[in-house]
Specification:
The protein has 286 residues and is an alpha/beta fold. It is built from 8 helices and 12 strands. The strands form 3 sheets. It has an 8-stranded parallel sheet with strand order 7-6-5-4-3-2-1-10. It has a two-stranded antiparallel sheet with strand order 8-9. It has a two-stranded antiparallel ribbon with strand order 11-12.
Length: 286
Amino acid sequence: MLKIGMSSCCGFPVTVEGLSELKAVGIDAIEYCGGRNIANFDFPSARKAADAAGIELWSVHSHMRPDFDISSLEKESNDAAIAELSELINRMSAVGIDKVVIHPTHTMEPFDQSTRGEKVKHAMACLDTLAEYAYKKNVYIALENLPRTCLGNTIDEHLTLLSANDKLRVCLDFNHSLIDDTAEFIKAVGDRIITVHVSDRDNINERHWLPGEGVLDWKANIDALEEVGYKGVWMYEMGLDCPITIARRRLEYKDFVDNAKAIFARKSLKSIGTPKPNLGLWGPKE
């Protein structure tokens, strides 16, 4: 059975108390997702808290803001993103965290699709530089697949981005696999998957629902992961609070553990929530 993990986007504090609460219900690893505040995160304190709680610091999700964009067509912007991520890699490496998740783009949608090819080239050049730098620090770049019109939204484009450097690895986000079949994506990238983001979706957009509340085939997905030899953490990336797209109670940490165990056992999943009717791209239509 895979270890069960939670992203800090869930809202728990990265303290001994906060991590011990996770550990008590059977969650054994975390991904730190700092968003805009990642530059101020105290990695040494997080290491001490994790060690005291018996929790693994599995991965870090890198910067998430529009001006941090390796696909920018401006070299100055590319260079700034490389510099920021290199500094983050230094700080992670110093406390023994060896996986950093990165998006191939942060360009706001919609964007001019005629620039897509050039944006892919800029992203690949940055990824090549970053993969080499990270490798020297015993860190791997895990390139996340993205939804909608973002870069890396198909199997073919993700494979193109990965071809920038053979040291690049993959973060599979189930919730982002809107175009190609998720199990086929898993088989296509194979053993380059070193971490996953677990949540469910509908056929319209990413939703960050609990598996079983959406449309994904979790038996096919876990079978495919086993087929490619994935042995990393089953990392949930969703909050406890109810999003506007679904009706349900507030989730508890134990819900994630029960959900994971049911998926691993190939059992039918019980839906805790009910998706709202008449959903548009980001929420219920007016």
